[in-house]
Design a protein that fits this description.
single chain; 287 residues; mainly beta; eight-stranded antiparallel β-barrel; five-stranded mixed sheet; 7% helix
Length: 287
Amino acid sequence: MKKINVTAILSIIFVTFIISLVGCGSINDEPDRLVSTSSTIYNVKAIDYNQYLKKIWVVKEWNGGAYDYFSFFISKIENGVIEGKLTTGSIAYPDFFYYSSETPKYIADLSGSVNNDLAECQFSDKVGNKGDITLVFNEKDEIEAKMKYTDKGEAYKDLSLDGNYLFRPYNLADIKDFIPSKEHSCAVNLNSWGSVNFVSGEVNHGDKVYSAAYLTNEHDDILYKFQAPFQTGLNIIETSIKDINNDGLKDVMITTGFMDDPTTERIEWIFYQMSNGLFYDSELDTN
């Protein structure tokens, strides 16, 4: 009788089982990638970094009012490299150029490397703040951060910010006295920003009223602030979003005046959009 090779039969059965798994899609249907080393298989979660981009991140425990922590936004994650900006003791709004075309000195460059859900970054501004920050990308709009300042500027030397923090997106709800205007707000596809909401209104501080305008996402997370020196007491009475200077990018025009007296002088503000999505006052083109 011919002798049966048991080892060969078992090998064939094992290979057939593996092929059947791949063929029916049981591996490829998982959201995680399988990475194999010599003897161990690890699950590496595939991360959509877009959910962390463009949002302004603030300390989760902050409930409005004065902001004495650090804040940041991430502008790019690509090919294992992360880029963004960070501020100490204030909220990290992306640049809005009104008085000059220079980035303020207190806004630090943030950069580093990304490996799956972990980013190791460094930051440095022009007023003496430097340090290291480790970011862990969690789900549900949350980022863990471990902060370590290696140097502090003179104005920030008394701040003790080293430590571990949880961050969340900055939201319109954080501006307690902001009253949006439905009439002068709209959804718009704004070039590199994609589909966003232009939200204008007023901030009411008791006897003082200030006009305000933002770009937000569908969850009211603030992506951008138009930081123009709108006059106290004036309302936004008209807005328009279109390409004003014929460069292929949509610009923003805001008109302020007295809501209850349309015969008074109207002030027109025009903000041109740049290719990177930032805005600047049109008067800078004439200076």
